[in-house]
Write a structure and sequence with these properties.
The protein is of the alpha+beta class. It is built from six helices and four strands; from the N terminus they run H-H-H-H-H-E-E-E-H-E.
């Protein structure tokens, strides 16, 4: 007969009453069968055969432009409502910023003090400034070799300029 948890009400910090217990063979088989019925739950590895099957099924299948635009708008709306979910903000919180950008921020912070802000969301746009001084509408962008895209940068700078922002670009070199 398989063992089942009768109560999982134990306090945080307390050792689980099930610690060290092992599943019976019958319970293990039930769990294996359940896993076989599920479609690749999070964290489970897929065999190469499964990966190839999925890959073959997806070949030539592309999203329509209409659907891609709809998904893009949903993503933009979600990020506008929850700016903390933006990849730039997440990386900054985790301390994953380039050494050059960090050094630039430290220098600007000495001059502008608490007015200096990292990964600042520029109002009325979907853009984030690497480093901003909002009171003066200054946007400092640290351009690394890998992520630098002059065409997109020029479009972005023009839009921000129209809103009264001055963009100052500092290259990696």
């Amino acid at each position: 007969m398989p063992r089942h948890a009768t109560s999982t009400s134990f306090k945080i910090g307390q050792i689980s009453p099930f610690k060290g217990k092992k599943h019976s063979e019958e319970t293990k088989q039930i769990l294996r069968n359940k896993r076989l019925l599920q479609k690749n739950p999070k964290g489970w590895k897929m065999s190469e055969e499964q990966k190839n099957k999925i890959s073959e099924a997806r070949k030539g299948h592309k999203l329509s432009l209409e659907l891609r635009e709809k998904l893009r708008q949903i993503r933009i709306k979600k990020l506008d409502e929850n700016p903390e979910l933006h990849p730039n903000r997440k990386c900054t919180k985790l301390g994953k910023i380039s050494k050059g950008q960090k050094a630039l921020y430290e220098k600007l912070e000495k001059v502008f003090g608490y007015w200096c802000m990292m990964e600042y969301k520029i109002p009325e746009t979907r853009y984030y400034a690497d480093i901003a001084i909002p009171i003066f509408k200054l946007d400092f962008e640290y351009d690394g070799k890998y992520w630098h895209n002059p065409e997109k940068d020029n479009i972005r700078d023009k839009k921000l300029n129209d809103l009264g922002w001055t963009t100052i670009r500092i290259g990696e070199n």
